[in-house]
Amino acid sequence: MNHPALVSHLQTAHRILVFTGAGISTGSGIPDFRGPNGVWTKRQPVYFQDFLRSEAKRIEYWDYKLEAWAYFKNAQPNAAHRAVARLQALGRVQAVATQNIDGLHQAAGSPEESVIEVHGSTRWIECLSCGGLFAPEPAMSYFEKHRQPPLCECGGLLKSATISFGQPLRRKVTERAYAEAGRSDLVLALGSTLSVYPAAEIPLVAIAARVPYVIINQGPTEHDSLATLRIEGDVAEILPAAVEALSAV
C-alpha cells in the first residue's frame, strides 16, 4: 500500500514524535477499550478512589487484571511496532509517546529510554505505599489462587503500574512527553482516536509550533481537522510499506 505523501513527510523529518494508541496493538491480540467490541462494553472500569477504599473493588480490579494478563503476557509486536523501531534505527525518531501499556514498542526493538509510557505499563506491579516495583507473575498467581488482592511486604496495596481512571498521570512522564513534542519536526499519530485527555494534548504541543501532523487510523479521530496528512486504514499495513520505501531511498 503506497502512500507517497507519507514517505515524503518521513524523508524530511529527523526528530519525529511517534504517538501511539490501542489501534497499533490490536494486531498483536491486545483488545482495545473503546471500540464496538472493546473492554469497556463488557466491564466497568474500577476508579482509583474506589480501589483505595473498597476491598470489593480491589477484588474486581484484580479479577480484570488477571483476565487481561492472559493477553498481555504472550503478546508479540506486530509489523507496525517493528516499523516504528526501524524508523528509529534510521535516525528519524526522537521519542515514542504511547498510550498503550503493553510494552510492545520495547519488545520490537525501540530503545527503552526512548519510549514514554503515558498510561504506565503492565510489565510491573507497584506498591502504592513504598513505591516498589515487582514482576507481575507472583501477584497474578497469588490472586488466582486466593482470590484476595495481593499486598506488598511492607503492607501496602499492590496495583498494576498503570494509570487507572481517576488516577493522576505521572507528572515527570507527561512533562517529558510535552518537551519531546515541543522539539519534534513531525508528529506521527498511529492507531489512536486521539480522544483520551490529557494524553491527546501531547501532539497539540507540536501543532501549536506549526509542526506537520500525520495521522494514520482506522476510523475517525478527534484531531482529523488538524492533520497535515490523514490516512485511513490499518497502521500495520501502511507504515511498514512507507518505512520500506524510505529505507530504499
Describe the model.
By secondary structure, the protein is α/β, with parallel strands linked by helices. It has 2 domains: 144 residues, 3-Layer(aba) Sandwich (Rossmann fold), CATH 3.40.50.1220; 81 residues, SIR2/SIRT2 'Small Domain', CATH 3.30.1600. It is 38% helix and 17% strand. It is built from 9 helices and 9 strands. The protein has a 6-stranded parallel beta sheet, with helices on both faces. A 3-stranded antiparallel beta sheet has the order 5-4-6, covered by helices on one side. A hairpin with a 5-residue loop joins strand 4 and strand 5. Helix 1 packs across helix 9 and helix 4 packs parallel to helix 9. The two termini are 17 Å apart. The relative contact order is 0.20. The model has no long low-confidence stretch (mean pLDDT 93).
